[in-house]
Amino acid sequence: MTGRLTAPLRRVLAGAEDVTGRIGGTEAQLETLVRHGLAFRHARPPRAYFLTPAGHRLRQELLTAAPPPTARAAETADAVFAARTGTETEPLRDGPARTREVHSAWQGLVELRRMTNPDGATDRPCAWERGHLVQAAALALEAGGCRPGVSGAGGYAVADTQQPEAVEIGGGQDELSSYADVLTKAGWQVGEHRTRGRGRVLLASPRRV
To answer: Were both Cys, which of 17, 34, 147, 197 would link to 155 (CB 3.0–4.6 Å)?
Structure first.
């Protein structure tokens, strides 16, 4: 499929917002992606364009493909945003740039809620979040000012569970209540549970109503 797209169309595809899949470009470019089944135009105003599942897959292929030599120098600046789950093994990059990235990702997610929740509600998670539980909960925590886990230094850690539509949040026992507050405000249902050997943890699920 990538061979059928012009370089400008591939740039539009690769430049889509990571969380929401919203894309920008000329009307002709966007309609071309729609014809290829890679994008759709939302029915609600402002009738923005978003990637389809096929568009997301192709975008990921473009982003993971080896960049040409002239692009490698800009690789760091163009890195894809990823929510911090608190389980990372690589050193974390902090600072004003990261703060802006998190704010932008969260605002994009709020917009996705408005565009895709049937009633346009922004105070509860949308289908994307229910399909990406760990990333969605981690983004809500980081956007709410919580610190992701760092080896030996505390912070939150988000992990999958065996329960449907639920994630586990661990961390410093004194910090769990603040994590619960942030997630509740972000539209999650949160309960505290005791575990063997690890003390208390939180179980969080996206609120539906």
So the answer is: 147
CB 157 within 8 A of CB 85: yes
Give the predicted TM-score (pTM) of the model. 0.66
Q: What is the mean pLDDT of the chain?
A: 84
Pair 83, 142: CB distance under 8 Å: yes
* Spans of all domains in the chain: 2-72, 96-206
**Can you give the pLDDT at residue 151?**
54
pLDDT tens for each residue of 186-202:
999 999 998 877 789 99
83 closest CA partner among 126, 144, 22: 144
Partner residues linked to 195 by β-bridges: 199
Pairing of strands 188-195, 22-23: unpaired
The residue among 14, 19, 7 whose CA lies nearest residue 38 is 14
CA-CA distance, 130 to 90, in Å (whole number)?
Answer: 27
Cα–Cα distance list, 208 to 65, 86, 181 (Å): 37, 26, 18
User: Is CATH 1.10.10 the classification given to domain 2-72?
Assistant: yes
